[in-house]
């Protein structure tokens, strides 16, 4: 049976790259009827952030990614939080030392810094010089008896080529001389990523490891660990996913925009739209289709179609996709999402009024925030006016026409978009001008902006008294 794991470090927000890793593991497990595991890799205590695990769980629930085993669900291979498994790692580190596959290293941080500087000065990659690798048992015992702090390092075999078949990239090879004698157990007794990762994958019977491309250089170290433990037959298959890139092809980073799932949630993106978008960053089962439900993604997911090349994170595509998902929802479904946003902004309106706004804005909205922020004129009168529209549409003639039109608005007995439109177009014909000469300044006066939904429908929703009050305010205050 397929068993995969999503193994994040609780270091803060959930990066969209981490979301894609979690998603691909989830899709792969569900496609094959396998098991999806959450394992929290929290052994790097210097980077641990309080509340990050809880935030991760909320985020995964929001996007619809579920787990079969993990800290919350439990399971027969727990505990699923690495800081609760430190005795397991120490035991396995001791086993490697006993088999002479690893060794204690007593070098101080000062000595290691000096070694790195010397290697860099010689144009060499900064690796450990294996100073403690050949200490005699007597020397090791003396250091231990003296209580000298130490780490445990992997004894990397020299003069070997380590090759593995990556399910995305094909055969990948590394010369062992380029592989450092990696630290497996730190002086504080906590494991490094490499030891904990391999031990846990083995004990949890992981069959496939799907992770980001940045971990590909760690794979030979992990293979050597499997060999050192004698676990070659249980080694999982590896698939390294392509990088996520900014439009300029640099690695996706917060310096160039939002990268946290929480950012997109807070900006009104729908979880199903974000999942759809992220799923297609590096994989697409079709040359023509772009909209997929989670069930569609599960049915279609295939590692053979994952690309090697980096995938560009194009926000315009996400905006388009989010708009598509917004249009697919019913007003009642959108009301559930928009109502809390309106409440947060102090807009005290009825559900029926809010649904009317939603219906009017649904075809134009790129995010749920658009219903309350872009279209805030449905909830409050403007006090500022778009300068571009003002320069183009607010003329002396426009003011005079609105002054003449205002009494007709006030006296209108039936306030609906048809009667409003009739008044505007009849007046335009009487003045031998296009209706646009009235529509644009009227929109500016009532909404404060130069674009939006159909003007006459908008005026109907805002209401007769409020529209007239806003026109009067604009006539007095717009120059």
Shape: elongated
Helix content: 40-55%
Order of helices and strands: EHEHHEHHEEEEHEHEEHHHEHHHHHHHHH
Largest β-sheet summary: 3 strands, antiparallel
The span between the termini is: 73 Å
Structural class label: mainly alpha
What is the spatial order of strands in the main beta sheet? 3-4-7
Mean pLDDT: 95
Q: Unreliable stretches, pLDDT < 50, 5 or more residues? A: none
How much of the sequence is in beta strands? 5-15%
Q: Mind telling me the C-alpha Rg?
A: 31 Å
How many runs of DSSP E, i.e. beta strands? Answer: 11
Number of helices: 19
What is the compact description of this entry?
The protein has 479 residues and is mostly helical. The chain is built from 19 helices and eleven strands.
Can you tell me about this structure?
The protein is built from 19 helices and eleven strands. It starts with a strand and ends with a helix. The protein has helices at residues 16-31, 52-63, 86-98, 109-121, 137-145, 193-203, 219-229, 261-266, 271-279, 294-300, 315-328, 331-344, 351-361, 387-393, 396-411, 417-430, 436-447, 455-462, 464-477; strands at residues 3-6, 35-38, 102-105, 151-154, 161-166, 170-175, 183-185, 208-212, 237-241, 244-245, 311-312. The strands form five sheets. Strands 3-4-7 form a three-stranded antiparallel beta sheet. Helix 6 packs across helix 7 and helix 16 (417-430) packs across helix 18 (455-462).
């Amino acid at each position: 049976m397929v068993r995969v794991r999503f193994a994040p470090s609780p270091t803060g927000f959930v990066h969209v790259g981490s979301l894609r890793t979690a998603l691909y593991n989830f899709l792969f497990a569900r496609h094959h009827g396998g098991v999806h595991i959450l394992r929290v890799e929290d052994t790097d205590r210097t980077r641990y952030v309080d509340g990050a695990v809880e935030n991760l769980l909320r985020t995964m629930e929001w996007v619809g990614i579920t787990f079969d085993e993990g800290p919350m669900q439990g399971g027969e291979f727990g505990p699923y939080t690495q800081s609760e498994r430190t005795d397991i790692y120490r035991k396995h580190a001791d086993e490697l030392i006993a088999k002479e596959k690893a060794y204690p290293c007593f070098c101080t941080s000062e000595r290691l810094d000096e070694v790195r500087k010397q290697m860099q000065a010689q144009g060499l990659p900064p690796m450990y010089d294996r100073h403690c690798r050949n200490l005699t048992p007597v020397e090791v015992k003396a250091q231990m008896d003296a209580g000298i702090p130490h780490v445990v390092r992997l004894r990397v075999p020299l003069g070997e080529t380590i090759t593995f078949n990556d399910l995305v990239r094909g055969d990948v090879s590394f010369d062992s001389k380029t592989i450092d004698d990696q630290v497996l157990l730190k002086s504080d007794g906590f494991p490094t990523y490499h030891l904990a990762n391999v031990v846990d994958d083995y004990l949890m019977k992981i069959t496939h490891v799907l992770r980001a491309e940045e971990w590909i250089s760690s794979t030979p170290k992990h293979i050597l660990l499997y060999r050192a433990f004698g676990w070659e037959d249980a080694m999982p298959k590896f698939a390294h996913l392509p990088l996520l890139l900014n439009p300029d092809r640099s690695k996706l980073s917060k310096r160039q925009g939002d990268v946290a799932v929480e950012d997109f949630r807070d900006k009104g993106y729908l979880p199903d739209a974000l999942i759809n978008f992220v799923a297609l960053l590096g994989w697409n089962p079709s040359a023509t289709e772009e909209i997929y439900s989670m069930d569609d993604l599960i049915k279609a997911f295939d590692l053979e179609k994952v690309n090697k090349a980096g995938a560009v994170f194009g926000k315009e595509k996400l905006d388009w996709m989010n708009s598509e998902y917004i249009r697919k929802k019913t007003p009642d479904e959108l009301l559930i999402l928009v109502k809390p946003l309106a409440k947060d902004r102090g807009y005290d309106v009825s559900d029926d009024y809010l649904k009317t706004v939603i219906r009017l804005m649904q075809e134009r909205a790129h995010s749920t925030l658009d219903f309350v922020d872009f279209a805030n004129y449905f909830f409050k009168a403007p006090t500022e006016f778009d300068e571009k529209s003002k320069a183009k549409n607010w003329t002396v003639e426009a003011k005079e026409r609105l002054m003449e039109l205002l009494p007709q608005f006030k006296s209108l007995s039936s306030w609906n978009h048809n009667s409003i439109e009739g008044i505007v177009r009849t007046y335009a014909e009487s003045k031998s001008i296009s209706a646009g000469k009235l529509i644009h300044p009227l929109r500016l006066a009532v909404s404060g902006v130069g674009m939006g939904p159909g003007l006459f429908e908008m005026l109907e929703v805002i209401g007769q008294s409020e529209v007239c009050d806003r026109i009067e305010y604009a006539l007095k205050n717009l120059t």
